[in-house]
């Protein structure tokens, strides 16, 4: 569950130090397209997606492996000019009220800001938009089918509201969908067409790694991922990418 503190902007110098960080990658070339990045993995997520690969980041109260923001701050200051960007990932970063302060501080040091999000909190995403240079947004399914994946009612409405918000704001956006093993060709066609119709231009399809999924009963693919991918008309998007095949 998200933290209980109200979500508000704070310029207090210690506000960022409340950010609960469950993991940290010092260098990556794949988490922010075209940029050398570090990744901050925020602890806690309100959803329990069946194919989730980051089960250790779901519990917001976990403290065993938390990393102090002060240590990350030192690292980032030492890497100015060597790294281009910092990506806040998770878990679900927007579940934490300290995210705004952490992004502000990171931007002030001199980094571009990336965000990986499920779109679970559109109302919390909105005030972050002036701080963000790039977003990777997970759109998991058609809105009416979200609860079967996340276990949370109305999660689809929230995610698609976040998509509309990002498109309206003109943020540099990549939308990603993980291919569910029980999807049909028609389902993926309908989903991709709906995304294109909303204005999505950069779309990424990802293979579901069922052997590491949160749900141990997730079935294997009945239609091979390559066949599913071929159901998507590449002319719908300016950029269509496939990961995991």
TrEMBL record:
<dbReference type="InterPro" id="IPR034457">
    <property type="entry name" value="Organic_radical-activating"/>
</dbReference>
<dbReference type="InterPro" id="IPR012840">
    <property type="entry name" value="NrdG2"/>
</dbReference>
<dbReference type="InterPro" id="IPR058240">
    <property type="entry name" value="rSAM_sf"/>
</dbReference>
<keyword id="KW-0479">Metal-binding</keyword>
<protein>
    <submittedName>
        <fullName>Anaerobic ribonucleoside-triphosphate reductase activating protein</fullName>
    </submittedName>
</protein>
<keyword id="KW-0408">Iron</keyword>
<keyword id="KW-0949">S-adenosyl-L-methionine</keyword>
<keyword id="KW-0411">Iron-sulfur</keyword>
<dbReference type="InterPro" id="IPR013785">
    <property type="entry name" value="Aldolase_TIM"/>
</dbReference>
<dbReference type="Pfam" id="PF04055">
    <property type="entry name" value="Radical_SAM"/>
</dbReference>
<keyword id="KW-0004">4Fe-4S</keyword>
<feature type="domain" description="Radical SAM core">
    <location>
        <begin position="31"/>
        <end position="241"/>
    </location>
</feature>
<dbReference type="InterPro" id="IPR007197">
    <property type="entry name" value="rSAM"/>
</dbReference>
């Amino acid at each position: 569950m998200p933290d209980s503190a109200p979500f508000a902007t704070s310029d207090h110098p210690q506000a960022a130090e409340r950010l609960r960080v469950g993991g940290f990658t010092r260098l990556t070339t794949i988490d922010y397209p075209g940029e050398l990045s570090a990744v901050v993995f925020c602890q806690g997520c309100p959803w329990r997606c069946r194919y989730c690969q980051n089960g250790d980041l779901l519990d917001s109260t976990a403290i065993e492996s938390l990393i102090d923001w002060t240590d990350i701050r030192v690292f980032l200051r030492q890497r100015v000019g060597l790294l281009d960007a910092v990506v806040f990932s998770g878990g679900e970063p927007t579940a934490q009220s300290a995210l705004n302060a952490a992004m502000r501080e990171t931007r002030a040091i001199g980094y571009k800001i990336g965000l990986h999000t499920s779109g679970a909190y559109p109302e919390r995403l909105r005030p972050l938009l002036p701080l963000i240079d790039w977003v990777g947004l997970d759109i998991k399914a058609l809105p009416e089918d979200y609860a079967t994946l996340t276990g949370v009612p109305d999660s689809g409405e929230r995610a698609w509201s976040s998509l509309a918000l990002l498109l309206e704001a003109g943020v540099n956006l990549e939308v990603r969908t993980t291919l569910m093993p029980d999807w049909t060709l028609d389902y993926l066609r309908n989903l991709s067409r709906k995304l294109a119709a909303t204005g999505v231009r950069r779309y990424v399809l990802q293979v579901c790694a069922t052997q590491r999924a949160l749900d141990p009963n997730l079935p294997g693919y009945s239609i091979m991922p390559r066949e599913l991918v071929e159901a998507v008309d590449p002319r719908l998007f300016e950029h269509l990418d496939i990961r995991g095949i």
